[in-house]
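Intended use. Records like the one below are meant for learning the mapping from a protein sequence to its folded structure. Do not use them to infer anything beyond what is encoded.
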Amino acid sequence: MQEKWRNLIRRLDAAIFSHQVVEVRKELLKIVARGRIPRAAIADIANQCRRVDLPEHAVSLLNRYVRPHGKIPARPSEFEKCEYAASLSQLGAHSEAAKLLEGNPNPSLSQWLFVQGMVYQKLWDFDRAIACFERALFHPKVRTGRGVLSIKTHLAAALIRARGDYDRADLLLEDVMNETSPTELGFLHRLAQMYGAEGALMRGRPQECLDRVAEGLRLYPEQNPRHEALSEGFASLAQLMLDPVKSLDSLRRVRAARDRLAELQAWEDGRLIAYHEAMIRGNRELFLRLYFGSPFPELQKRLLPKIQEMGGMPVDFDWYLTSPKNGKGEGDRYVLDVVSGAHSGGEDRLKTGQLLQRVLQALGSDPFRRFRIGDLFDRVFPGEYYNPHTAPDRIHQGVMRLRRWFE
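Structure written out for the chain above:
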C-alpha cells in the first residue's frame, strides 16, 4: 500500500476514536466519490465507512471483490470478506452475513470471529455468539488492548442475555472497567457499565441497577443519546420492580425510553427493553407481541416456554394499530392478513410466493422497527446475494407495486 494511503487511514482512524464522526463522514464521502482507491486500501476504507454509519458505501466498495460478476474470480482476502459481512449486517442483511462468515470455520483473523459473534447477537442467537467471542478471545492472533477489551465487553453481554451467567459476566466487565476510564477508551468503559446495569436488572437486583445507572450519569453527563435512553429504560424497569405501587409512572417512563430509542433508530435496543419488560411483568400480551412481532427464531424459542405456561399459543394474533381515520383507535377497523393479503376492504388476495405477497409478509414481520433495504432484501429474496447496485431498485419496485395493489 502506498504511504499516502497508510497515513490517510491512520489519520481517519485516530479521528474516529476522537469522536470526529461528522468530519470523517464528509472526507470519506469525498474519497468514495473520487474513486481510484487502490485494492490494498479498499477494506480499510470500507471499515471506516461502516464505523461512521456509511455501510452502503462499504458494501459498494467491496462487492466487486467479494461477489465478482465477471468470469475471473477476484479471490477476496479474509479481511475484505469480514468487512463485507459486517457491513451487510449493518444494512440488515444478517442472514447473508452469517452464511458468508460460516464459510470459513478456521479464520486466521480474530476480527472474523468477533464480527461473526456480533452478527449472531443481532439475530438473538446468543449461544452461538458466545462461542465466537470465546474463540476470538483465545485466538492466537488476537490483538492486545482495545481488541481484547471489546471482545470481553460483548462476551459479557451475551452471557447475561443467553445463560444468565452473571458471575462470569461480572468478572469480564470488571476487567474492562479496570482497564478503561471515562477518558481512556471511554466508549468501552460506558458499555461495560451499562451491561452491568442490565445484568443487575436481570438477576433481580433493581437497586444495584439504579446505582449503576446513576454512576453512569455522573461520569458521563453528556453521554451518547442511545446509551442514555437505554439506561433510562433499565432504570425505569428497576423502579418498577422496587415499587409496584407506582407502576403506571414507571411504565410511562419505560414507554418513553422505547419511543426515544425508536427516534434514534435504535430499534433492537427498544426490542430489548420490551423483552425485559415482558420478563419482569410476566405479561402474556407482551410475550405474544414479541413472539409475533420478531422475525428471529432464537428469540421466539426463548419466548415459547413462557407463552406455553400462560395458556398456550393462539392460532393467530391481531396486532392493533391506531386507526388512520382519527389517530385514536376509533372508527372503522381495517383488518389485514399479512400472510395472504386478505383484508376487510375487499375480496382481493395475493398469491402465495408471489413478489407482492413476499414484500407484504416481510413488511409485516417486524412492527418493532423500520426496515433498511438490506433487511428487506434478505427477507424478500432469501438465498440471493445482496447487490448494492440492483437490490435497492428491486425492493423499491416491489414496494411501489404493493402500494398500487392496495389502491
